[in-house]
From TrEMBL:
NCBIfam families: AhpF_homolog. Residues 318-337 have a biased composition (Basic and acidic residues). This is FAD-dependent oxidoreductase. Keywords: Flavoprotein, Oxidoreductase. Transmembrane segments: none annotated.
Length: 542
C-alpha cells in the first residue's frame, strides 16, 4: 500500500493548489499532476489586484506562493500528461505518460483553455495576426492597430494591457455592454487609447501572408464595415471569448452540462463517488482566482470526509499510507531580497543542487559569442554556470563558431560532440527551466518518456532542423521547447535551435511570425502554438 495516494489532484492552477494545501495540511498523502506549468492560466496575468489580502501581485508570483505553501505541508508535484482515468472501485487509477498511480480519491482541476470564436480566417491566421495571449504576443503589435474581441473580464483587462504596445486598441463587444465588473469596464471606457463598439461582432478576417483586412457587423443596425490598415502594414486581432473546459479526459463517465462544464454539487462532488471538481471546469457563475481557491478548499475538505470512510471500510491503519515529512516555511530557502547582479540568485542555485546531483555523465556547454550586447550577457551567464556541477564544463568561444548562428549556447557530450540542441540568447524567464531540463536529459537519467514515442523519435532517418522561436515572457513556449529539444537529444538526425525573438527579429519578418511559440521545420513548414512530442512527431513523420 506504500504506493497508494490518498488523493491525486489533476491540475496545478489555483484550484488544484488550494486543494493540495488543504489535503496535505490534513496529513494526507497528496500528488499534484500538472501537464504544462504550475499555476495555470493566471500565470499569464501581469497584474492581480482583486485577490483579498494581496493588494497587488502578478499571477506567477501568487500561484508560486500557493505551490510553496502546499509543498511546506508535504504535497508532491509531478509534471506529466494524464492519459486515462479508471474511476471505478475503491482504489482508482491515474495513468500518465510517466507511469500509473493509484489513489483513493481524485480532485479534477484541469481548468480551461481560450475558446475560439469560429469566424472566417480565425484558424488560418492564428500566429499571423490572430492571437489569444496579450502577455505572450503583445509586443509583436508595437505601433500597429489592434482589435480585442470580447466583453468579459479578460477582454477588458487585456485591452488596457495592449495599449502599452498598440497604436490604437478597438474593443468589439457583442453585447450591449461589458459583462465584467463595472470598475474594470470603466478603465476601458475611459482610456484615451481605446475605442469600443457595442452589439458588434467580427464576420471575417483575411489577407495574404498576414492579416490585411477585417469585416465587422453591427447587429443592431445590420450594417457591416471593413477595416484595412495603412498600406504595407498589418494589424492584430486578440480573441478573449471565454474558455473551453478541459473535460475530455472524463467526459465519458462524469456528468457534464450542455456547454461541457463539469457538474458538481455544493460539496464539489461529481457524479461518481470519490471524485471532486474544482475551478474553471465546473459549472459556476464567476471564474476568478478567488472562486477557484474556494472550490479547491471545498473539494479537499469533502474528500477528507470521504477518505475517513474509506479508511474504515478498507480497514486501513491511519499510518499505513505514509505521509512525506512535512517542512516548515522556515526550512525552505527564501527569495533574496536584493538583486545579486547576475542571472542566478542564491535560491535558484540551491534549487539546482538536487537536479545536478543526479547527473550521471559529463556535459560540455559551448558558449559562442560576438561583439553584441546579448553576447556579453551570454558570457556572463557562462561564468555563473561553470561552478554549479563537476559534471558541467563551460567553454567560451571554442572552435566551430563559423557553423553557429551567434550568440548560442550549444549542449555537447563530455567529449565535445554536439548533441543537437542550441539556445540562441540567454535562456532566462520561463525558458530557464527548459535549459536545465535539456542538461538533465543530456547528462542525467532524463525525464520519463513513453517507449513508443522513443522508438518513433529514433526511427527518424532524414536530417531535420527545427527552429523554435519564443519569447521569454511566454508561458506556452516551454512545452514546445522541451518537446523539440527532447527529440533532438534522442536522435542525431535532428537539430533544435531555440531563438529568443527579441534578438533575432529577422525571423519574424522571414516567416511572418506574429505569435509565439513558433516552430519552423527545415526552414519551410511553419507551425504555431504549443505542441507535445507526439504532435511534433506527427508533423515530422508526414
Amino acid at each position: 500500500m506504500s504506493k497508494l495516494y490518498d488523493g491525486i489532484i489533476i491540475g496545478g492552477g489555483p484550484a488544484g493548489l488550494s486543494a493540495a494545501i488543504y489535503l496535505a495540511r490534513a496529513k494526507y498523502r497528496v500528488l499534484v499532476i500538472e501537464k504544462e506549468k504550475m499555476g495555470g492560466q493566471i500565470t499569464i496575468t501581469s497584474e492581480v489586484v482583486n485577490y483579498p489580502g494581496v493588494p497587488e501581485t502578478d499571477g506567477r508570483r501568487l500561484t508560486e506562493n500557493m505551490r510553496q505553501q502546499a509543498e511546506f505541508f508535504g504535497a508532491e508535484f509531478m509534471m506529466a500528461d494524464v492519459k486515462e482515468l479508471n474511476p471505478d472501485g475503491d482504489v482508482k487509477k491515474v495513468v500518465t505518460d510517466k507511469g500509473s498511480f493509484e489513489t483513493l480519491g481524485i480532485v479534477l482541476a484541469t481548468g480551461a483553455s481560450p475558446r475560439k470564436i469560429g469566424f472566417e480566417g480565425e484558424i488560418k491566421y492564428q500566429g499571423r495576426g490572430v492571437a489569444y495571449c496579450a502577455t505572450c504576443d503583445g509586443e509583436f503589435f508595437t505601433g500597429l492597430d489592434v482589435f480585442v474581441l470580447g466583453g468579459g473580464f479578460a477582454a477588458a483587462e487585456e485591452s488596457v494591457f495592449l495599449t502599452k504596445y498598440a497604436k490604437k486598441v478597438t474593443v468589439i463587444v457583442r453585447e450591449e455592454d461589458f459583462t465584467c465588473a463595472a470598475a474594470v469596464a470603466e478603465q476601458v471606457k475611459n482610456h484615451p487609447g481605446i475605442e469600443v463598439h457595442y452589439q458588434t461582432e467580427i464576420v471575417e478576417a483575411g489577407g495574404e501572408s498576414t492579416l490585411q483586412y477585417a469585416v465587422f457587423r453591427n447587429n443592431e443596425t445590420g450594417e457591416t464595415w471593413r477595416y484595412e490598415p495603412p498600406t504595407g502594414k498589418s494589424f492584430g486581432i486578440f480573441v478573449f471569448a471565454g474558455y473551453a473546459p478541459a473535460t475530455g479526459l472524463f467526459k465519458e463517465f462524469l456528468e457534464l452540462n450542455e456547454d461541457g462544464y463539469l457538474v458538481t454539487d455544493m460539496n464539489q462532488k461529481t457524479s461518481k463517488d470519490g471524485i471532486y471538481g474544482a475551478g474553471d471546469i465546473c459549472v459556476k457563475n464567476l471564474r476568478q482566482v478567488v472562486t477557484a481557491v474556494s472550490d479547491g478548499a471545498v473539494a479537499a475538505t469533502s474528500l477528507e470526509k470521504y477518505l475517513s470512510g474509506m479508511y474504515e471500510k478498507l480497514q486501513l491503519p491511519e499510518r499505513e499510507i505514509s505521509t512525506p515529512e512535512r517542512r516548515k516555511p522556515t526550512d525552505v530557502p527564501k527569495q533574496e531580497s536584493a538583486e545579486t547582479g547576475g542571472f542566478l540568485t542564491e535560491e535558484m542555485k540551491q534549487q539546482l543542487v538536487p537536479v545536478f546531483e543526479r547527473l550521471e555523465k559529463d556535459v560540455v556547454l559551448k558558449f559562442y559569442t560576438d561583439d553584441s550586447p546579448i553576447s556579453r550577457e551570454v558570457e556572463e551567464f557562462a561564468g555563473e554556470m561553470k561552478d554549479l556541477s563537476p559534471h558541467i564544463r563551460c567553454e567560451v568561444n571554442p572552435e566551430g563558431a563559423e557553423k553557429i548562428e551567434l550568440p548560442a549556447i550549444c549542449i555537447c557530450s563530455g567529449d565535445g560532440t554536439y548533441l543537437g540542441t542550441a539556445f540562441h540568447g540567454v535562456p532566462g524567464g520561463h525558458e530557464f527551466n527548459s535549459f536545465i531540463i535539456a542538461i538533465y536529459n543530456a547528462a542525467g537519467p532524463g525525464q520519463a518518456i513513453d517507449e513508443g514515442l522513443l522508438d518513433r523519435i529514433r526511427n527518424i532517418r532524414r536530417e531535420i532542423r527545427i527552429q523554435t522561436v519564443i519569447s521569454l515572457s511566454c508561458t506556452m513556449c516551454p512545452e514546445l521547447v522541451m518537446a523539440v529539444q527532447r527529440i533532438a537529444l534522442e536522435n542525431p538526425n535532428v537539430e533544435a535551435d531555440i531563438y529568443d525573438m527579441a534578438y533575432f527579429p529577422y525571423l519574424k519578418d522571414k516567416y511572418q511570425i506574429m505569435s509565439v511559440p513558433c516552430m519552423i521545420v527545415n526552414e519551410k513548414d511553419v507551425y504555431f502554438g504549443k505542441k507535445s512530442v507526439e504532435e511534433i512527431l506527427g508533423f515530422l513523420e508526414n
